[in-house]
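COURSE: Structural Biology Practicum
ASSIGNMENT: Worksheet 4, Part C
STUDENT ID: 0417
INSTRUCTIONS: Below are two proteins. For each, the amino acid sequence is given first, followed by its structure token string. Answer the questions at the end about the second protein only.

PROTEIN I
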Amino acid sequence: MILLTLLMQGAAAPAADSARTPAQAPAPAVTSAPSPAAVVMGARLARTGSIMALLPLVAAKDTDDLVAAHPDLSPTEQARLRATARTTLAAGMARIETAFGTAYAKRLTPGELTALVAAAERHEQQRLRAVQPMVMAEAIASLGTLDFKKDVAAAFCRDTGKLCK
């Protein structure tokens, strides 16, 4: 959910170039109208992303929670609710794939897309994506509460005496 929250909040690129580390490449030029072939390759790349591995797990948990929250539903209605959840997930994943694919196609060259898709579709990358949800859940659970804004404000307070509550 952290990833989805960041996406929904519209996490933007850093406002100042000074936030960029020396190893980062400059922002690529954005193509306003990528070719249909580039959009297809972008969608293939999007399909291999971590978010696409996480969404089914989040949807399964949310669906289970929804069913559990409504014990008045008959077994037939519960099955229908689960079917509705699967349909809704498929539609949502298609929208995400298209949105990410188009965004990739606007920012990457056809050659870059082809190379990235080839790398992403390798067996080792598929294995990595298969274990990522469990690894993320384990790592996040071991970290405890994460509140970036609170941590930054506390550090700023220690350093400057400002933003202290």
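PROTEIN II
(use this one for the questions)
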Amino acid sequence: MDWSPLGHVALPLEQVRQASWEELIQARTVLTGLRPFYALYVMHGLFMPDTPALAALRARIDERGLGSPLTQMISIDTGPRQFADALLSCLDPIWHELHQALMDQLQADPDLFCLPGDHTRATGFVESWIRALREQTQLARSRRRTRPPGR
């Protein structure tokens, strides 16, 4: 393939040129594999119930100090440029290692959505999450009603 028309993006282009097809496929696998783990990582901050399995996944990310870099790499805007940048980032072995650690953790404890002591499994998890969201909504409404005018 002739890459010369893209010479204005020399550094990323050089990384792509130097990567083998296998490395690019692995980077794509890592990038697409990290997305659902990142979603679980950030949903914790959106009142999603915590389980030992979810906490263990977050710990694998946090113990490596990769929460913020992962946020930068897995952007909400997934246009071609952002995808290309993220794909190039995934050529770095640190992301492959993180992906493998998360996959190993998931295999070791696949009960992501099982709250301790709740035998309804995912159903109880979702019910708990919905209850937490409703409670937060009610709390916000009550704060709005008790707020003095003009604030």
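ANSWER KEY EXCERPT:
Q1: The radius of gyration is 21 Å.
Q2: Residues 5-10 have pLDDT under 50 and may be disordered.
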